[in-house]
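Encode chain A's predicted structure.
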Amino acid sequence: MRERNNNAEKWDAESVIECLLKIEAHVRKEDVFFLGDALNQTGLYRQVWKYWKRKFATHDDIRFLMMRVESLLEARLFGGALKREFAPWVAMFALRHNFGWSDTPGSEDAHAIDAPDEPQEPALIFELANNEALIVPYNPAWDKNKKK
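Encoded structure for chain A:
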């Protein structure tokens, strides 16, 4: 006979909402850029987040809180890159792997942005939520390790 998973049973809607509010408080701190970090600070891990997404997929309050946490992190990554607070490639890596963004022109990915017809200056290309593209011209100053 299969053993019961008591750990999973403790996650009812009320306890998840309580945890999500704590996670959101950690994400609102300026030094949190990664969901795994916020989860770790509250004693959780990524698999719990995935479990909640499956279990509470139709629970509006929980879905809203989870989307809010993810949106805060997504905005922080994008804003940090735009303001040159850190290397744009770091933000793009995180946005690609955690939020489905793509910076590869002509990619078959659903979030990809089509390549322009003519050659362009180097730029970072971000697909926005409204399916518009934001093109940020590349600034060589971003490469602080590059010799002049």
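The chain has one domain: 6-142.
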